[in-house]
TrEMBL record:
Belongs to the transposase 11 family. Keywords: DNA recombination, DNA-binding, Transposition. Residues 109-355 form the Transposase IS4-like domain. Pfam families: DDE_Tnp_1. Gene3D superfamilies: Transposase Inhibitor Protein From Tn5, Chain A, domain 1 (3.90.350.10). It comes from the Bacteria. PANTHER family: TRANSPOSASE INSL FOR INSERTION SEQUENCE ELEMENT IS186A-RELATED. This is Transposase. It comes from Claveliimonas bilis.
Length: 436
């Protein structure tokens, strides 16, 4: 355990060196790009992307090259970054994340959460798919939508998919990520209301997974077509058949046959198969005096009682916390470019660093004392700083003793606390307003 941070660092460095030895597979012009000896090698370019903080690009270069008089300019670094294929950092993310241990400690299940978050960066009208006008102003900004599968047990992003904000499609993104993930065995996927869809349910079922997805109430969602009890709380199972078109038999049993509306997508219909049976369990929970929630699942009542489902769905909030940590602790809200190609490089680098830090943190055991009023956990904001300092130590420089330092910074776990969610638009952090 004491050497896990060094093992993780060496693992990531080894993967980068392996890519460097086969750099022609990751550059736009094989045989030409990075073929000559320059100040910034292929390996240095990857390491620089993984070392970026929230300072200006010039200050980041000063730190990275240890204030050497012959350090390269920011223009030279941008030219080197421009030689990388668009999927280079995504490949590094996939390989590194696949090597990290993933634990199934919720009654033997892997828990995954699906969600998305918007990331803003300075305005660039040359990227129309990302450009968005700011209401009531002459200004605009650019934005990209981050879709993610987050492994709740291990605290890391298992899959990410980045979409320009005007091509945002969380349903198709989730289906793509389901096809890409290598997690197998007993899995439960949790998601919020935006993912309620028969097509999504079917993809999860075909994967052999279970799901707990929050549903919409009223006349817009799946619930409106089901014969639900007139009760404040219920737990009912509905066998349904998704069908492509109405006929006499389907019209006579509307509570059983659910026709996909015109224009809606369902990927499992063929010329031969026009019906798709599935069994849904629908739970209505009273959260407070004037608030209730609808959950859709395929887990049985015997295996997953209502109380466990409530606990499981509450755990989904960890992905929201992870997005916040990625933006503000790892610096994904302070990027160094307006070009989408470079933005994607930096965002994949931030997710790699997030998984790097959380994997180390997960392997630190914090002993609890009976004299403490609360249970304690390691402070994440301080832990990120320590892990990043260890990562950024130049070759030949001893990194800090990560494990000992992490144990010095702990915060109480206060599960009873809750705060109202007051989302507000966040201002773009422009290049000229960076941390000194």
């Amino acid at each position: 355990m004491a050497d896990y941070s060094l093992i993780t660092k060496h693992k990531l460095l080894h993967m980068m060196k392996k890519m460097s030895r086969n750099s022609d597979s990751y550059v736009k012009r094989p045989g030409k790009d990075f073929s000559r000896s320059r100040k910034i090698s292929f390996f240095d370019t990857l390491r620089f992307l993984l070392s970026l903080g929230a300072k200006s690009l010039d200050k980041e270069l000063l730190d990275f090259f240890s204030y050497r008089p012959d350090l390269p300019t920011s223009s030279a670094m941008l030219q080197q970054r421009g030689k990388l294929k668009p999927n280079t950092m995504k490949v590094l993310f996939s390989v590194f994340t696949a090597s990290l241990p993933k634990h199934s400690n919720f009654h033997g299940y892997h828990l995954l959460a699906a969600d998305g978050s918007e990331l803003s960066f300075p305005e660039n009208k040359k990227e129309p798919l990302c450009h968005r006008k700011i209401p009531n102003t002459q200004k605009g900004k650019n934005a990209i939508h981050l879709n993610a599968l987050y492994h709740l047990n291990s605290g890391i992003f298992d899959q990410v998919l980045l979409q320009p904000v005007h091509e945002k499609d969380e349903h198709s993104a989730l289906i793509t990520m389901l096809a890409q993930t290598e997690i197998s065995g007993k899995v439960i996927l949790t998601a919020d209301r935006g993912y309620e869809s028969y097509n999504t349910f079917a993809h999860i079922l075909e994967k052999g997974w279970n799901f707990v997805i929050r549903g919409r109430q009223g006349d817009r969602g799946i619930l409106s077509s089901l014969a639900i009890p007139d009760q404040e709380q219920f737990d009912v199972e509905y066998p349904v058949v998704i069908c492509k078109k109405h006929c006499r038999g389907t019209k006579e049993q509307p509570e059983f046959y659910k026709r996909i509306r015109s224009g809606a997508k369902f990927d499992f219909f063929t010329e031969e198969q026009t019906e798709y049976p599935m069994k849904l369990r629908v739970i209505k929970l009273k959260v407070s005096e004037d608030l209730s929630e609808i959950l859709f699942t395929n887990l049985s009542k015997e295996e997953m009682p209502v109380g466990m489902l409530q606990e499981l769905y509450r755990m989904r909030w960890m992905i929201e916390t992870a997005f916040s940590q990625l933006k503000y602790n790892l610096g994904a809200s302070a990027l160094h470019s307006k070009r989408i190609e470079y933005v994607l490089q930096e965002l994949y680098a931030k997710v790699i660093l997030f998984n790097y830090c959380k994997s180390i943190l997960f392997h630190i055991s914090l002993p609890q004392k009976t004299s403490w009023k609360y249970d304690y956990q390691i402070s994440l904001s301080t832990a990120v700083d320590i892990c990043l300092k260890s990562w950024r130590c130049p070759n030949g420089t001893a990194p800090p003793d990560v494990e000992i330092l992490l144990l010095k910074y702990k915060v109480p776990i206060r599960r009873e606390r809750s705060f109202p969610r007051t989302p507000s638009p966040k201002a773009v952090i422009y290049f000229t307003y960076r941390i000194a």
